[in-house]
Design goal:
- This protein is α+β, with helices and mostly antiparallel strands.
- The protein is built from four helices and 13 strands.
- The strands form three sheets. The protein has a six-stranded antiparallel β-sheet, with no helix packed on it. A five-stranded antiparallel β-sheet has the order 9-8-11-6-13, with no helix packed on it. Strands 3-4 form a two-stranded antiparallel ribbon.
- The longest helix has 12 residues.
């Protein structure tokens, strides 16, 4: 696992072993994860979504604490996976990082608590699995407009992205900040320290 320039995001790029039968790779290893991130991954829920090309899911995030960290993998097809720093006070607040996850490259993205997460399907069908550190709690879940110009995310536009009504009507980063909905960088660091203890 490799830490990205934005604190709170790690990219896992396993060795994929092909042979006449297909391929094999280690999708997740607790020892490798713990060594890279500094604490073990606590699995509370696993989700699988299937999306057609152009479907954009997110940007989603959960209130901290406890937040909801995600270890995201693409089991079939390919997606552009995006993490956004939503931690008020962070040196990289409002920045994003994007990586292609696919069944071919076997890559996964770990997104820590306090980060926003989204992806768009790049293939006719894409199956994504999210390992989550906390169970889904509707009243703690929030959305952010993925097309907010202050973020400047370069989403593919062909075909036109397809969003759920909730994601399509999501507020801007400025509105979320004004409403005091965004997590603070300090609360996220404090939560991480507890997990490392």
């Amino acid at each position: 696992m490799r830490r990205m320039s934005m604190d709170g995001v790690w990219l896992s790029t396993p060795d994929v072993h092909p042979d006449s039968r297909g391929t094999f790779h280690e999708a997740f290893r607790q020892d490798t994860f713990t060594e890279a991130v500094g604490h073990p991954f606590s699995l509370a829920q696993a989700n699988v979504s299937v999306s057609r090309r152009g479907v954009l899911r997110g940007i989603h995030f959960a209130a901290v604490p406890p937040g909801q960290a995600k270890f995201v993998s693409c089991l079939h097809g390919a997606v552009l996976d995006v993490a956004v720093d939503l931690r008020v006070g962070s040196p990289t607040f409002g920045s994003y990082t994007a990586h292609e996850l696919s069944s071919r490259n076997g890559a996964s993205l770990y997104v820590a608590e306090g980060m926003g997460h989204a992806f768009i399907a790049l293939t006719d069908e894409a199956t994504v699995m999210y390992l989550c550190s906390a169970v889904y709690t509707p009243h703690r879940e929030h959305t952010l407009d993925p097309f907010d110009p202050t973020l400047g995310i370069d989403w593919p536009r062909d075909p036109a992205p397809v969003l759920s009504p909730r994601d399509r009507e999501a507020p801007s980063l400025a509105q979320l900040a004004s409403d005091n909905v965004l997590p603070s960088y300090e609360s996220c660091l404090a939560h991480a320290r507890v997990r490392r203890a």
